[in-house]
Amino acid sequence: MLLFSLLCLSCAGPVVAAGAEQAYRKATESHQRLMGSAKKQQHRDQWLAVLDRFTAVVEMAPGSSTAADALFMAAQTCEGLYRVSWVKNDARRAVELYLNLARQHGESSLADDALARAAEIEETVFKEKGEAYRHYAQIVEGYPRGDQAAAARIRLKALSDHAPPSPPAASPVAAVRGGGELTGLRIWSNAGYTRIVLDLSRAAEFTANVLPANPATGSEPRLYVDIAGSAAPQLLSEVTTVEDGLLRRIRTGVPGENRVRVVFDLVSFGDYKVFPLEDPYRIVVDITGSGAPEIRSADAELRSLPPAPQDGIGRILDQAPAERPLKIHIPEGQKNGKLRRIVVDAGHGGKDPGAVGVSGVLEKDVTLAMAKVLARRLEQAFGCEVLLSRNGDVYLPLEERTGFANKVGADLFISIHANASTNHNAYGVETYYLNFSKNEQAMAVAARENGTTLKQVGDLELILFDLMANSKINESSRLAAEIQKSLVEKLGRHYKNIKDLGVRQGPFHVLLGATMPSVLVEAAFLSNSREEGRLTDNKFHERTADAIISGVRNFANALEMMAAR
Predict the structure, then answer these.
(1) Reduced to 3 states, what is the DSSP secondary structure of residue 416?
(2) Which residues have a Cβ under 8 Å from the Cβ of 440 and sit 6 or more positions away?
(3) Using only C-alpha atoms, what is the Rg of the chain?
């Protein structure tokens, strides 16, 4: 048995390496197609799809030379995205990827190139000349014969006034026994709202607190999260500059043994929510306030959209526990009710296949095909911009989907899914919107789409009370009702046995934190052989898209009439 295991291990290496090389070639081809299309470069999801391909290569073979190549290309993709979006978080991510390459693949011929790119971005984009000096010094000291050494020496002379008094010491990391590790952080920003996700290697207890501004000392408000039994790796930057109008920077430190503190230095502050998500474990921090991100170039159009119409929140307040009063932020009303930007989300993707049909059809493939048809027809019907959360078979964490919709200022968020049941005779169409729900069937569907258990869905309830205060709950219910009605009527003209399962409410992760009307459409059941056949038929995709569009049109017309009153 031991010999067999050793043989398997010896064979696995070349197989993984070959797979990584093939995936890298495909990712490079995708990058080349993106660079060759000015139209594609205007769509953020195109850049993110290429980025996902390169990061997937790194995950396949993290210690290989192919991983170093993929890290460099991933960083270049983020840098290219910044040149289009002018969103500083894109440039910051590029720096982090370049530095990860230098730390993890110091022997690579790309290591000094990565340090040079990181230094230039720090100097020109963030005006962090001290950081730039440090990276140039690393090139001269670590790669004195490299092709970047001569240019680095020139920059060191020019930045000599910013040289540190002594070499920077390594960040102290507490020795933690049995604890998880803070492996990274991700940031999404839009006007009045910033989401940060703290990735951990395993579940951990945490606490959050706010330190208010102190006019006497001139200190700004701060929010901090203490994570117990966790260690911060040295590859995670001690300071991450954000400067999006709400959040100035993020700092990580180790204030005591078996504890990591993540501090958020705030520019303006209204409210916050901190909650965990499972598999993989991460802590989500949502911050709201009155600050507006810096606006430049193409990003200006995305940031200048008027907020969605004001919605009623009476039902939410009626349901809220008396001992936990909600802090409510109500956006200003939209002026004309017109739709200008819609995000269509293809459920699942990449390593998450979703439901599997009776003959092996994967939900992730069906939803992508349907989402592409819907996006194309929405553009034709409304003349508005329609963005896909994913444009290929890539994995997107659930929080990134609404985070993307918030980021681009979408007016609507429509998530496309295919249903499944242990009862293979179950069939029909249903549309969901985010809400607190005691309905066991709705919770079971939510558990499947969230990738969690029924118990974990139940644990979401208190979180949802807070999150719904910022969700467009009433408008989402109206949108869901219009889409469901249209789906039943229009599909019923072409197909027998179209069963109306109604509009339902459920705690879906993919809808959490959306600041626009948001729905999740379960178009048919993959677990039913008749409906699985429909879900693979292009004509069904087109008819489903047309039905959704009819529902969106009725919803938009109602908004326009209300706006005109």
Answers:
(1) strand
(2) 454
(3) 25
Contact call for residues 343 and 415 (beta carbons, < 8 A): no
Give the count of beta carbons closer than 10 Å to the beta carbon of residue 62.
15
Mean pLDDT of the chain: 75
For residue 514, the model assigns a pLDDT of: 60
∠ CA(193), CA(515), CA(435), 5° rounding? 125
| Distance from C-alpha of 364 to C-alpha of 526, rounded to nearest angstrom | 11
Amino acid in position 258: N
The Cα–Cα gap between 486 and 412 comes to 17
Alpha-carbon gap, residue 560 to 409, rounded angstroms:
18
SS3 449: helix
The answer to whether 347 and 367 have CB atoms below 8 angstroms apart is yes
Q: Which runs of consecutive H residues, i.e. helices, occur in 233-339?
A: 297-303, 314-319
* Local structure of 330: helix, strand or coil: coil
CA distances from 294 to 87, 89, 120, 389 (A): 8, 11, 21, 24
- How many CB atoms are closer than 10 A to CB 180? 18
Beta strands in 518-560 (DSSP E): 518-525
Are 135 and 276 within 8 A, CB to CB? no
- For residue 280, say if its preceding peptide bond is cis, omega within 30 degrees of 0: yes
Written as one string, the DSSP assignment of 282-305 is EEEEEEE-S------HHHHHHHTS
Q: Where does the pLDDT of residue 270 fall: very low under 50, low under 70, confident under 90, or very high at 90 and above? A: confident
pLDDT digits (tens, 9 = 90+) for 287-335: 877 654 433 322 222 222 223 333 222 232 233 333 333 332 333 334 4
Give the C-alpha separation, 59 to 54, whole Å: 9
Return the pLDDT at 254.
77
CB 413 within 8 A of CB 510: no
**Residue 236 confidence class, pLDDT cut points 50, 70, 90:** low
Is residue 136 a contact partner of residue 123, using CB atoms and an 8 Å limit?
A: no
Share of the chain above pLDDT 70, in %: 72
